[in-house]
Specification:
The complex is a heterodimer.
Chain A lengths: L6 E3 L9 H5 L5 E2 L7 E2 L8 H5 L5 E3 L2 H5 L7 E4 L13 H9 L4 E4 L1 H20 L7 E2 L4 H10 L13 H13 L12 E5 L4 H6 L11 E4 H12 L13 H5 L5 H4 L6 E5 L1 H12 L8 E5 L15 H15 L7 H9 L21 H17 L13 H9 L9 H4 L9
Parallel strand pairs in A: 5-6, 5-8, 7-11, 8-9, 10-11
Antiparallel strand pairs in A: 1-4, 2-3
Chain B lengths: L2 E8 L9 H13 L3 H21 L3 E8 L2 E8 L7 H4 L9 H5 L7 H8 L2 E7 L3 E9 L6
Classes of the chains: A alpha/beta, B alpha+beta.
Chain lengths: 424, 144
């Protein structure tokens, strides 16, 4: 059964090199016969393959790329990463105004970040009072992290903070606010998230913790970039659309979310490999002294997202400027956030998350036997990790052979009768 | 009975690679599909014993043996040996150097933690000759 994901490999452009297969953190890609790369395993939409493909053959599908145009009645809820894409002289409000020239309703999401920070503080305090609290809590913000956990670390699902994410809260509130407008009932109406992230489509079409998403679609920053750049030249309207302080803006950089927490022993980790390493260690029982983990699978945080235009370090610099400029105070009032928290504003009915595509479940005996077969096969393999067999590394190749997905003869070293140690 | 055995070499004083073996053990047990709580206990023991070898020097090996009833970890090293095993089993007792403590290790919780998490635990050590640690775990609840 094909599993749903929003990464497409253009088979015309792909020349069957192994770069995407090597970069894939879930080892989902195979390049059989070195002809064309195909996603065969569990894809978490992280976008690592998009980044490494030298031929631009891999793309993320968005609502925009599917529809090629959005109605002007679309509601736009922008990730603050968008504000970092136009240089340090362009203020967040100008970016929002530029969007507003094309779309009737535009909302800033950064303010909701600050509300979310306050709710997290309250949850951490509450958790400390519990008889057997679960530590560390894990930020629910990065959809790739959520999928990684469901797929590879399901025992950590209960660590994910059960608060609705700011993007979803912002969309829910936008819909509430506009529900009396005439346009609300038309087909054109929808709340769309402008995002640096290739995994927002999947998190909207099949959310992990919500029954259904409050968002209707996602648009890549790269897709509105030209439009915003053009509209920035002719800004007339003077409305204040940007409401957050520096804290909410800072979320675009790794560490930005926890920088907004006045409570808790926190740690921020970015990059896909680093994230996996830390999740492994948490699953092993380490880091019990940490109360809250912020994970972002994109290096340096969301400013490093695959759908951005600006260089991540340039964007980081711009964002740091903005954070300084708008200050380290959160704009929402603590008391009102606390009241909303108590009234359940931050929560939604949580559905049981679907676990990743599970391998066919073997009994322990069969699984040990299979693993022994894999270990025996590994002994035969050269350990060159070349990928010429069409599997990402020798370990995965051994597993593929054990599962009879590929023949052992696909290893070019074995075909030549050579093994590790056969050096000239 | 299906049976899996795998050996790993531990490099003393390599704090960059430290922990790597326990991560591999953890991954292997997960692939086989043992219960999460059992895997965590084995991983904690693998981690603590791996770190002991890394900290106190001497080449070492960790071997993992798995069958459907039990998991056994054996760690042997050619390190300095433990002078007083009873003391080493006390929480907070440590002979780690100042340097190692500055890195955040050597809190004297390793062996006590192993004792707590393993179902059976044997330790043999001779000063100047090295240490041999054997930890066993029962696979009680099987999947399905």
């Amino acid at each position: 059964m094909a599993q749903l994901h929003y990464i497409r490999i253009d088979e015309e452009r792909c020349n069957g090199c192994v770069l995407c297969m090597k970069a894939c953190p879930t080892k989902a890609i195979r390049v059989r016969d070195l002809r064309v790369a195909r996603i065969e395993g569990y894809c978490i939409d992280c976008g690592e393959c998009i980044r490494v493909c030298p031929r631009g053959a891999i793309k993320a599908i968005t609502t925009w790329s599917n529809a090629s145009k959005l109605s002007p009645y679309t509601v736009i809820s922008a990730s603050p990463v968008l504000y970092t894409q136009f240089g340090e002289d362009i203020m967040p409000n100008e970016v929002l105004l530029a969007l507003k020239k094309a779309f009737k309703y535009v909302y800033d999401q950064a303010y909701t970040h600050e509300l979310f920070n306050l709710a997290t503080e309250l949850y951490i305090k509450e958790n400390r009072e519990k008889a057997s609290p679960i530590w560390p809590l894990i930020s629910p913000i990065c959809p790739v992290v959520n999928r990684l956990i469901a797929h590879r670390f399901p025992s950590l699902l209960k660590h994910v903070l059960p608060i609705v994410t700011p993007r979803e809260l912002a969309a829910r509130e936008a819909k509430k606010r506009l529900r009396h407008e005439k346009v609300f009932k038309t087909e054109d109406f929808g709340v769309y998230h402008v995002t640096p992230c290739s995994a927002k489509m999947i998190s909207i079409s099949s959310p992990m913790f919500l029954e259904t998403s409050y968002l209707d679609g996602a648009v890549g920053i790269h897709e509105v970039y030209d439009l915003v750049t053009k509209n920035l030249q002719h800004l007339e309207e003077e409305v204040m659309l940007h409401r957050s302080g520096g804290v909410g803006l800072g979320w675009g950089i790794s560490g930005g979310e926890i920088a907004g927490l006045d409570e808790g022993n926190c740690l921020a980790v970015s990059g896909i490999q680093e994230t996996i390493r830390y999740l492994e260690k948490i699953e092993m029982g380490l880091f019990r002294e940490i109360e809250y983990f912020e994970f972002r699978t994109c290096l340096e945080g969301c400013i490093g997202g695959p759908l951005t235009v600006s260089d991540r370090y340039q964007a980081k610099h711009t964002l740091q400027r903005l954070v300084r400029l708008f200050g380290q105070e959160k704009r929402p009032k603590y008391a009102s956030a606390q009241k909303a928290y108590e009234e359940g504003w931050f929560f939604a009915e949580r559905k049981e998350p679907l676990l990743g595509e599970q391998e066919k479940r073997l009994g322990i005996r069969e699984a040990i036997e299979r693993q022994q077969r894999v270990e025996d096969l590994l002994q035969k393999l050269p350990g060159k990790e070349c990928g010429a067999c069409g599997s990402p590394d020798c370990q995965t190749f051994a597993e593929d052979v054990a599962e009879e997905r590929v023949a052992l003869a696909a290893c070019i070293f074995l075909r030549q009768g050579k093994k590790e140690g056969d050096r000239p | 009975m299906p049976y899996l055995k795998k050996n790993f070499g531990i490099v003393p004083l390599d704090f960059v690679k430290a922990g790597e073996i326990s991560i591999q053990v953890h991954g292997l047990l997960k692939t086989i599909g043992f219960e999460a709580a059992l895997i965590r206990r084995v991983s904690v023991c693998a981690y603590e014993s791996e770190m002991n070898v890394v900290m106190h020097g001497g080449d070492g090996t960790l071997s993992l043996s798995v069958d459907s009833d039990s998991i056994v970890l054996e760690v042997r090293d050619e390190g300095p040996g433990i002078e007083n095993i009873d003391l080493a089993l006390k929480e907070g007792y440590s002979t780690a150097t100042e340097e190692i403590r500055e890195m955040g290790f050597g809190a004297g919780m390793g062996l006590p933690n192993i004792q707590k998490n393993a179902d059976a635990f044997e330790i043999h050590s001779e000063k100047g000759r090295g240490t041999h640690l054997k930890m066993s775990f029962n696979v009680k609840s099987r999947r399905e």
